[in-house]
Write a structure and sequence with these properties.
The complex is a heterodimer of chains A (about 160) and B (about 800).
Chain A (H helix, E strand, L loop, with lengths): L4 E7 L2 E6 L3 E6 L13 E7 L2 E7 H5 L15 E7 L2 E6 L2 E7 L13 H6 E7 L2 E6 L1 H6 L1 H11 L1
Parallel strand pairs in A: 2-10, 5-7
Antiparallel strand pairs in A: 1-2, 1-8, 3-6, 4-5, 6-7, 9-10
Chain B lengths: L1 H27 L4 H21 L2 H18 L7 H23 L9 H24 L13 H5 L4 H13 L12 H28 L3 H25 E3 L1 H4 L2 H12 L3 E6 L4 E3 H22 L3 H6 L6 E10 L2 E8 L6 H10 L5 H6 L2 H5 L23 H10 L3 E7 L3 E9 L4 E9 L2 E6 L3 E6 L8 E3 L2 E6 L2 E7 H4 L13 E6 L5 E6 L1 E9 L5 H4 L4 E6 L5 E5 L1 H7 L16 H7 L2 E7 L5 E5 L3 E8 L3 E2 L6 E4 L2 E6 L10 E8 L4 E6 L1 E8 L4 E2 L6 E7 L2 E6 L1 H8 L10 E3 L4 H13 L3 E3 L9 E5 H10 L6 E6 L10 E3 L3 H17 L1 H7 L1
Parallel strand pairs in B: 2-4, 9-18, 13-15, 20-30, 24-26, 31-32, 31-33, 33-34, 34-35
Antiparallel strand pairs in B: 1-3, 4-5, 5-7, 6-7, 8-9, 8-16, 10-14, 11-12, 12-13, 14-15, 17-18, 19-20, 19-27, 21-25, 22-23, 23-24, 25-26, 28-29, 29-30
Helix pairs in contact in B: 1-2, 1-4, 1-11, 2-3, 3-4, 3-5, 4-5, 8-9, 11-12, 12-17, 25-26
Classes of the chains: A alpha+beta (about 160), B alpha+beta (about 800).
């Protein structure tokens, strides 16, 4: 992990890291076509050249934000494009900060990160720009509902 | 060397696939030299190649088979069951060896060369058996063929010709086109590249339109468009494969299964030249195999049972593929025992699929289609052929996954027929773009039966509780409001502003989807949506519009199922798809005309009730709003030229929104045209809905909504006088039209309306008067004779002038002296 390139972004006021290998590009986000009746964390679809991207609002996808976004955090006009199991997504975040290098392995901290963050994070990672939460893309893209269902199922 | 080897393996495989079917066909008709030649060529080629690559065992096997077949070709021996079995065994062995060679395994895994010897010996043993068959008392005599020749099966003398023709047709593909082999990924990459190119072109087209006409760019751009659509056609065809590749393996499958189960089955394949998406062929391979297994295992009876039932000993399994529009239908039918309705029903009740009460309400077809329900298997004895945990429910699921459907029909004792409907291709579909609440969505064209404007009076839009209903071709059809379905915040829209898209589901159910507008239609390149979006169950994919805006493709079947609009979600029947209706449905037609400002305009054809010609005297332009009198109605008039009106007559388009009518004065009515080009909104002209191209010329489409909002008003219908006609055919067919043309509404005989004018025959009048019956206040009396006694007050019934004059006079009297009626009564 040390030496890996990371894309650092702010999600709901927290510094998060994506593996630069996951991030295909960073785009200016254009018009977003909303998807009626889709989960709230899916902001809509947008076009990147001839491709349709599903726009994910990361703040909602983590599950820390249930009310209207925008009041608590700013939204970057850029989005990170990632692909997961053949589908392309554009991730809406507070801001995309930097590309930096990992300075260690992702590790857990005592007490965890809180249920929402623990679901989407593989752990804390030290980077040259300071510590950040390493985001598990698949978990993030699964949305907050899955965790809730699991909890409900467990109960 | 490796490349050569790979080619050898691939070539041999291809020939193996082809020859399996040929061999069985040849066995059925040993006289068929074309088939024999094909098989001979195969073993011959294998033999040649094997020598080249130094595979002595392969060479030995193919050599032996070649020898035996050469004997047949030379007429030295007759092909019989043993020979075919032995040749098949050798071909199987060759196939296995080819697999092993490809995997780099040692051929020794097939046992020693002794086992090959045994196979080769079988060829010769069979020769002796064939010679001594008479002694062994073969059931069918010396030539113990598994299947009787096709001629014998069909019995009569006139068919051999057809059979031979059919044989020749089927033999054709062996003379295949030159082909090359390509990795599928490469094909897919080219495919998606072309899709992207189409989208880029659409985007460019949009920008060019915005930039206005630029002759230097438009020419090359047009050329690009043409080339691109050609390329796309070709690419689409690249993905296509003849269904033959699937059919090729079936005769062998049928033969092996029937031999295993002790049944005699002849397979009849038809429509092998139908082309299908390669991926689709792979998708239906398993379902098809499963259905064939089922048919042979459960459907077709053992020979003895067939004979006892008065059928031919040999069962017939027919598989036919047909293309109709953008769906392929594959029909698998057998002439076996048919499905047992009672047993299926009993089983369904036992497994809790339906209740006994439901059962009694269900028709035979519905019950039969229960076999596709999960967890249903009628076979009491589970054989190793069918019923290995993969039920018909999986077959249906697999088909539905790709947008297909399946249904079954069956007649007891006569056979079963499975019919599969599958879409032609997965990725490019014809679609319609609709708008609701500012959002756009696409609907697959294949569902669209017709498009109706809410303005059409006959639609009779009503709300029943929370559900909306419309009347379509005399049937009440449920109507979904797309805005509500999607939970959009839409304002309540008046019914006549809605556009209704009539959708026909694969199950045959019809429903209407109310949208606010229709944009255009065309081929859509559908891309899959992220799973989280798919879970909403409303969308089937996404696509990009010309302007690069992404839109969602609605999952019509799922939406309907969600709203319980499928008559019975368990039963999937296939509705009659009227190709013509579907094609005609998506075209918006408009009436093209030139208005008095000299502008070429169009108005949607649904709005145009009639084209009227009115004399200038009928027009009253004195008020703030011009009016015109048509058929005794005073109607608003728009489109008059400024200033004095000089023409003696004027052409008018009579427009209606169902309740209101208005007339649109035009200089010239041209024709009814189809709106095929995109509609471009014109924000600055309130009365123009859009500008479009018709025959390359710009045409303004009149905004009917704005027009009726400004000028529409219900006609003053009370002015129209009414007339009661005498009874009888003559009055209805001959007198009626004349009276109607004179501006009267016709009331049936016997109605009592004090304001109406009555027409009676003189003799009836006399009778009525004698009996003291009440008669309408004002009367026109008719007589049968041309000559009348002076002063009789009657009119000869064919005296047109007098009749019209009397009607006109009565009308004027009604207009000017409404009280006169009361006095007269």
């Amino acid at each position: 992990m040390t030496g890996d390139l990371l894309v650092i972004a702010q999600i709901a006021g927290r510094r998060c890291a994506f593996s630069a290998l996951d991030v295909k590009s960073v785009i200016e986000i254009g018009t977003i076509t909303p998807i009626p009746r889709a989960p709230a964390w899916i902001a809509g679809i947008t076009a990147l050249r001839s491709q349709a991207l599903t726009v994910i609002d990361c703040r909602r996808a983590v599950g820390v934000c249930t009310g209207p976004v925008g009041q608590d955090w700013p939204t970057d006009h850029r989005a990170a494009v990632v692909t997961d199991s053949g589908y392309s997504y554009a991730l809406m975040v507070d801001s995309i900060e930097d590309i930096t290098t990992a300075a260690g392995e992702a590790g857990q901290i005592p007490g965890g990160f809180g249920p929402e963050w623990s679901r989407v994070a593989t752990g804390m990672i030290e980077t040259l720009a300071g510590p950040a939460l390493m985001v598990d893309l698949a978990a993030l893209l699964a949305g907050p509902d899955t965790a809730r269902h699991e909890i409900e199922a467990a109960i | 060397m490796d490349d050569l080897l790979a080619d050898f393996i691939a070539e041999t495989r291809e020939m193996l696939e082809a020859s399996g079917g040929e061999l069985v066909a040849w066995e059925a008709d040993p006289a068929d030299r074309a088939r024999l030649d094909t098989i001979f060529r195969f073993v011959h080629t294998v033999k040649g190649n094997c020598g080249f690559f130094d595979f002595p065992r392969l060479a030995g096997l193919s050599h032996a088979a070649e020898d035996a077949l050469a004997d047949c070709r030379a007429g030295r021996r007759e092909p019989d069951q043993q020979l075919v079995t032995a040749v098949l065994a050798i071909i199987d062995r060759i196939a296995l060896m080819i697999d092993a060679i490809e995997a780099g395994e040692d051929l020794a895994s097939f046992g020693g060369e002794d086992s090959d010897e045994a196979l080769i010996a079988d060829l010769d043993v069979s020769r002796e058996t064939s010679g001594n068959a008479g002694l062994e008392g073969g059931r069918q005599g010396a030539n113990l063929t598994l299947h009787a020749p096709a001629d014998a099966l069909f019995g009569t003398g006139e068919q051999p010709g057809n059979d031979r023709a059919a044989a020749a047709r089927r033999a054709d593909p062996t003379a295949a086109q030159r082909t090359i082999r390509l990795p599928v990924e490469l094909l897919d990459r080219v495919m998606s590249g072309v899709s992207d190119m189409v989208l880029a072109r659409n985007d460019l087209a949009h920008r060019l339109r915005q930039a206005g006409n630029q002759p230097t760019i438009d020419g090359p751009f047009e050329r690009l468009t043409t080339i691109l659509s050609d390329v796309r056609d070709a690419i689409t065809r690249m993905r296509m494969q003849r269904i033959e590749t699937l059919f090729g393996a079936l005769p062998r499958l049928v033969r092996d299964l029937s031999a295993e189960l002790g049944k005699q089955v002849m397979v009849d394949l038809d429509g092998g030249d139908v082309e299908l998406d390669r991926e689709m062929i792979e998708t239906i391979r398993d379902p098809l195999t499963h259905l064939i297994r089922n048919a042979i295992d459960h459907g077709i009876e053992p020979p003895s049972a067939r004979l006892a039932g008065g059928k031919r000993e040999i069962g017939l399994l027919a598989i036919a593929a047909r293309q109709s529009g953008n769906t392929i239908s594959i029909v698998i039918s057998d002439d076996g025992r048919g499905l047992d309705e009672e047993r299926i029903a009993a089983k369904a009740i036992a497994t809790g699929l339906i209740t006994a009460a439901e059962r009694s309400a269900m028709g035979r077809d519905k019950i039969l289609n229960l076999i596709f329900e999960p967890g249903f298997s009628t076979a009491e004895v589970v054989s190793n052929v069918s019923g290995r945990g993969v039920g018909l429910d999986v077959v249906r699921q697999n088909l539905e996954k790709v947008g297909g459907s399946i249904k079954v029909t069956s007649a007891p004792g006569q056979g079963t027929l499975f019919s599969l409907q599958i879409p032609l291709t997965l990725s490019i579909i014809a679609g319609l773009t609709v708008e609701v609440g500012g959002h756009r969505f696409a609907i697959p064209q294949s569902y669209v039966e017709e498009i109706a404007q809410g303005t059409a009076h006959a639609l009779d839009f009503t709300r029943m509780g929370e559900t909306a209903l419309v009347t379509f071709r005399g049937n009440r059809v449920p109507c979904l409001m797309l805005g509500e379905v999607l939970g959009l915040d839409t304002r309540e829209i008046a019914a006549h502003e809605l556009t209704l898209v009539m959708l026909r589901l694969a199950s045959g159910d019809l429903f209407a989807l109310a949208v606010e507008g229709i944009h255009n239609h065309g081929d859509l390149v559908v891309k899959p949506l992220a799973p989280a979006v798919m879970r909403s169950g409303l969308y089937a994919g996404s696509t990009l519009l010309d302007d690069g805006q992404p839109v969602l493709l609605l999952d019509v079947a799922n939406i309907a199922a969600h709203h319980n609009l499928m008559s019975d979600t368990r039963v999937r029947t296939i509705g009659l798809i009227e190709e013509g209706a579907v094609v005609a449905a998506d075209i918006t037609r408009a009436m093209l005309f030139t208005d008095f400002a000299g502008r070429r305009s169009a108005v949607r054809l649904e709005l145009v009730q009639r084209i009227e010609t009115a004399p200038a005297s009928a027009i009253d332009a004195s008020g703030a709003r011009p009016r015109v009198v048509i058929d005794g109605l005073i109607l608003p008039l728009v489109g008059l030229p400024q200033g004095a009106f000089t023409l003696p007559r004027v052409r008018l388009l009579r427009l209606t929104d169902g309740a209101c009518e208005l007339l649109y004065a035009v200089r010239e009515v041209e024709d009814a045209v189809e709106l095929t080009e995109a509609l471009h909104p014109v924000p600055d002209d309130p009365l123009a809905e859009a500008v479009t191209l018709i025959g390359g010329q710009p045409v303004t489409l009149v905004d009917a909504h704005a027009l009726f909002a400004l000028h529409g008003e219900p006609p003053l219908a009370a002015i129209r006088p009414r007339c009661i006609l005498p009874d009888g055919e003559w009055a209805r067919t001959i007198l009626g039209p004349l009276v109607a043309r004179a501006g009267y509404d016709i009331l049936p005989e016997g109605t009592h309306d004090p304001d109406a004018i009555g027409i009676v025959f003189e003799d009836m009048y006399e009778v009525a008067e004698a009996l003291g019956r009440t008669l309408p206040g004002r009367l026109i009396r008719l007589r049968d004779q041309p000559d009348a006694p002076p002063g009789s007050g009657t009119i000869y019934r064919y005296d047109r002038e007098s009749l019209l004059a009397a009607l006109a006079a009565a009308k004027d009297a009604a207009h000017t002296q409404p009280d006169f009626v009361g006095e007269a009564a």
